[in-house]
Amino acid sequence: MLRRDSITVVVSAIPSPTEMTEAVVFVDHNGQPVRTATEVIMLVPPTTNRAQPYSIQATATTLTSAGGPASVGQQSTGPVGLVPTQVPDPSTGASTAGGPHTEPNGVEGGDSTAAAASLPGVSYSAYNAHGACKTGSRVLSDFQRMATQYGLVRIYGVDCGQVATAVSAARSTGLKLFLGIFQLDNLEKQIGELVDAVHTHGDWSVVEAVSVGNELVNNGQATAQEVINAVAATRQSLRSAGFHGPVVTVDTFIAVLRNPWLCDVSDFCAVNIHPFFDPNTPAPAAGMFVYNQVAAVRNVLKNPNQRIVVTETGWPWQGCANGDAVPGKENQRAAITSIKTVFGAGHSDNLILFSAFNDMWKKAEPSTFYAEQYWGINQF
């Protein structure tokens, strides 16, 4: 889940993203100041100013999070509220051949079917409302519900036996899996648990991709170089275990704009983009916001044709308003429809919605507008 650590401003006079710290005054709808805080400001060029390619070895640096509120994001550079009837696909593009880990279509490990590729994916939590692990029967029931709308399910870790229950449920329902390693601690142990669960309860044919970390750089939990090293180590271990599909790291689009080498080391570029955290984006414009941020990310990639997958995006149906971004049942429907429209039916496999069900085990916080528990799409 996205937690913004900076304010992003588009500035035409700069050639590449620049970070600075400034005092920021937050105002309400009437322009009245409500609080003042010191925030990290991220200045980025418009998407028409193409950034220079990055070298992993030359530019990987240590980065820490400012830990600011999750309230302000990059403004959409496209026409707010207008989704073009025909737009260039924001997520397609084959990686250049010949690299050591270029599997741009994500099919080598997952053996995708046309039916699965025509549907978006969805994120899924292994915990019930009280934070305990879901049982195998509960997971199977959830997967049966998700299989009517989605082609892939993304999970985040190896705890709770979630890989085992997900693999079993995926085999029963025909869904594909986007597996994950949540933290970098005890990496080899986590990889071993993932591999053992797949081999014990199924095989690699149900696994589309594996992620290493989720928003670790954005949240200041790891440096870009630490994540890069972990992705390389995980890929090597998984190859030895028989998995030849994509291995990636997932981070926010802001973190990737700062550290595009996170995508260079990944077999596709995996970014979380949440329009709700931009106070200037109403629900019907959610798709255009996602489209514009994908374009901004593509503009800083070493390989501009690299496949980009939006690994989290959605809209809460309950919580407090964030400027023009207002939670609600109808607004959630409008936002999801807008996002799906931008991707189109032909490229839905580059879209993973957040999330399948409410996550009542999470903590309601003002920094996420008391909406953290209420992103479930399949509620009504």
In short:
By secondary structure, the protein is α/β, with parallel strands linked by helices. It has helices spanning 56-59, 114-117, 136-146, 162-173, 187-201, 224-240, 253-258, 261-264, 286-298, 329-343; strands spanning 7-10, 18-27, 33-44, 121-123, 152-154, 176-181, 207-214, 247-252, 269-272, 308-312, 352-353. Keywords: Hydrolase.
Q: Can you tag this structure with a few keywords?
A:
TIM Barrel; 380 residues; alpha/beta
Provide structural commentary:
The protein has helices at 56-59, 114-117, 136-146, 162-173, 187-201, 224-240, 253-258, 261-264, 286-298, 329-343; strands at residues 7-10, 18-27, 33-44, 121-123, 152-154, 176-181, 207-214, 247-252, 269-272, 308-312, 352-353. The chain has 380 residues and is of the alpha/beta class. The chain has one domain: Glycosidases (TIM Barrel), CATH 3.20.20. α9 (286-298) links the parallel β9 (269-272) and β10. α9 (286-298) crosses α10 (329-343). It is globular and about 50 Å long. The two termini are 22 Å apart. Mean pLDDT is 79; it is low at 2-6, 10-23 and 44-114.
